[in-house]
Amino acid sequence: MKNKGIISLLAILVLVLGGVAYLFTTNKLENPKIFETELQKYEEVSNTDEVEDIETDLENTEVNDIDKEIPQIDAEIDASY
């Protein structure tokens, strides 16, 4: 049972590293500074588990444009077939 967990963890790690390698080799990360800035916005949350703090974190999280790249992703997938 423990071996299955380790194998699953390694498989996930390989997939993540493969995705990152793909992005860097295909220059999909056109401007890494913008990517890092956006990522930092999502990482800026409080370290408490108080309901008020969680609500504040949720209110401050911008998710309106989270799906703006879906048409581009769909086009790339369709082009690969």
Name the structural class.
mainly alpha
* Helical coverage, percent range: over 70%
**Strand count:** 0
Number of helices: 4
Distance between the termini: 38 Å
Oligomer: single chain
What's the SSE pattern? HHHH
- The average pLDDT score comes to 77
Strand content: under 5%
The low-pLDDT segments are: none
Question: What's the story with the biggest beta sheet?
Answer: none
Tell me the domain tally: 2
Radius of gyration: 17 Å
Cα shape: extended
Keywords for this entry:
81 residues; 0% strand
Structural overview:
This protein has 81 residues and is mainly alpha-helical. The protein has 2 domains: 1-29; 31-81, no CATH class. Helix content is 70%, strand content 0%. The protein has helices spanning 2-25, 32-43, 51-60, 70-80. The protein is extended. The termini are far apart.
Record the SSE blueprint:
Layout: H1 2-25, H2 32-43, H3 51-60, H4 70-80
Short description:
This protein has 81 residues and is mostly helical. It is built from four helices and no strands.
